[in-house]
Specification:
By secondary structure, this protein is of the alpha+beta class. The chain has four domains: 3-140, Schlafen, AAA domain (Methyltransferase, Cobalt-precorrin-4 Transmethylase, Domain 2, 2-Layer Sandwich); 147-224, no CATH class; 230-388, Heat Shock Protein 90 (2-Layer Sandwich); 399-481, Arc Repressor Mutant, subunit A, CATH 1.10.10.10. 34% of the residues lie in helices and 22% in strands. It has a seven-stranded mixed β-sheet with strand order 13-12-16-17-20-19-18, covered by helices on one side. The chain has a four-stranded mixed β-sheet with strand order 1-2-5-4, sandwiched between helices. A four-stranded antiparallel β-sheet has the order 3-6-7-8. The N and C termini lie far apart (75 Å).
Length: 483
């Protein structure tokens, strides 16, 4: 480490990856909790002889070698840092003074300082005292195994939702006409998916937590994971409580359907031409968000997964075992499989593709839906993604407004028809069909490349909504926009 390389670290002052300590005449013993925390998190820089504001106090010449010797000795003492670690500390001259610098790498092990686990955040080092905190650390280090592989020997085939395997086979068939699951029994599907395992501690075989969460009945899920739920909340108008809410406690396949239905109920549709294919930006984007919410969450923690819709943003949150703790740009997000068995199952039924496709989908289609604003991702213990959206002419209460505020409720049938219309939003529809007083259904059908019956159906909906009216006889006349 040179003086030129050290100065930028001092300018950043103390932070998540930088620890500055006074250590002029004797080694600051608190440095060991920082070393332990860096080992357990993602590494960091230790500078002895500096103040928290980055100013240099220095290490005295008389104590310099002694401090280096003590560091080397203690870091190889399992009663101090366990497992022991090898870290090179060196003196550096800066502004006529000496400091001690050492870089602590991220470790693949979970370390303790005097028997206590430490972790690192922006505020410094903190002790991990609760069982959940220690378990999260062990999971992140790969020492506790995946929560989804927890074995429940008492589960039987009667504990899975009736008919759910038929849904699985139907989706698998859509992926491959010769998908092997089509000829397997229900038990064989679970075996081939890695959802029946032997507990390495007890030696007993059984279906796993993954099996229960993906395919189980609500009663089964409540017995194996009582805190499991996904909360869908709409806070467009009532931000203190909510406009609407769906507390989802069913299996993950059904949870995905429920989330999609909730979003369709409260978020604006955004038709988009992808080449020659007409797609829904809302559905395309939220499909990836919901699958991440359900599949890539740490199931051991009782923190609920939530999806909240606000006036112009939507926020998805779930408990996470973070590999990095910071705000992350969507383009820089590195996906990590939290529940690979569950992810593989969803891949087999066509819900997900390879790791990273969701991020690429958001990057590709997001700008058209995000109204020019940036998606904000916070990867902490709680993974949070905040997605902006532009409220369109179809607001969340299920109405259509034209430029003169002519508003009527949409029935479910009208909504389906409206969202499939070739014209776009209601304002453009009424403009397009009233440019020419002599326009006819046949001319509109030719213009939009649609069957005349489809055009007639669409115009009927607009008429029911009070946006246009027909003037003249049914077999003639013209369409007029209502002002």
């Amino acid at each position: 480490m040179t003086e030129e390389e050290l100065r930028p670290l001092l300018k950043r002052r103390e932070w998540t990856e930088i620890e500055l300590k006074k250590s002029k005449d004797a080694l600051a013993r608190s440095v060991y909790s920082s070393i332990c925390a860096f080992l357990n998190r993602r590494g960091g820089h230790v500078i002895l002889g500096a103040n928290n504001d980055g100013s240099i106090e220095g290490v005295s010449d008389e104590s310099l070698q002694s401090q280096l010797d003590i560091l080397a000795k203690d870091l190889n003492n399992p009663q101090i840092i366990n497992p022991v670690c090898h870290i090179e500390f060196e003196p550096v001259d800066i502004d006529g003074k000496k400091v001690i610098y050492g870089f602590v790498p991220e470790s693949s092990e979970a370390h303790t300082y005097k028997g206590v686990y430490y972790d690192r955040n922006q505020d410094g080092d903190f002790e991990l005292r609760s069982t959940q905190q220690i378990f999260d650390l062990l999971v992140r280090k790969g020492k506790a195994g995946y929560t989804e592989n927890r074995v429940f020997p008492y589960l039987t085939m009667d504990d899975f939702e009736p008919g759910i395997f038929d849904v699985v086979r139907a989706n698998a068939r859509l992926q491959r006409a010769d998908h092997p699951w089509l000829t397997m029994t229900d038990e064989e599907i679970l075996e081939s998916s890695g959802m029946r395992l032997k507990d390495p501690q007890t030696g007993k075989e059984g279906y796993t937590l993954a099996a229960a969460l993906v395919l189980g009945s609500e009663k089964t899920i409540a017995s194996v994971l009582p805190h499991h739920k996904t909360d869908a909340i709409c806070r467009i108008n009532d931000t203190f409580l909510y406009d609407d809410r769906d507390v989802i406690r069913c299996n993950l396949i059904r949870s995905f359907d429920r989330l999609c239905a909730f979003a369709a109920k409260h978020l604006p549709e955004a038709p988009f031409m992808d080449g020659v294919q007409r797609i829904s930006l809302r559905d395309k984007i939220l499909r990836e968000v919901f699958l991440n919410l359900l599949i890539h969450r740490e199931m051991s923690n009782s923190y609920p997964a939530t999806f909240t819709i606000y006036k112009d943003t939507m926020v998805a949150e779930n408990w996470n075992i973070p590999y990095h703790s910071a705000l992350v740009k969507l383009s820089d997000l590195t996906p990590h499989p939290k529940n690979p068995t569950i992810a593989r199952f969803f891949a087999n039924i066509g819900y997900v593709e390879e790791l990273g496709v969701g991020r690429r989908t958001l990057l590709k289609y997001g700008p058209a839906y995000f109204d020019g604003r940036e998606t904000v991702i916070s990867e902490e213990n709680v993974f949070r993604i905040t997605i902006p959206y532009k409220p369109t002419i179809m607001p969340a209460d299920g109405t259509i407004n034209d430029t003169k505020n002519v508003t009527k409720k949409l029935t479910d049938r009208q909504r389906v028809i409206y969202e499939s219309m070739p014209f776009g939003d209601a304002e453009n529809v009424t403009k397009n069909v009233t440019k020419n007083k002599s326009v006819t259904t046949s001319l509109l059908a030719e213009k939009y490349g649609k069957d005349p019956r489809t055009i007639k159906r669409d115009l009927k909906v607009l008429q029911e909504l009070g946006l246009i009216e027909h003037v003249g006889p049914s077999n003639g006349g013209y369409w007029k926009r209502i002002k």
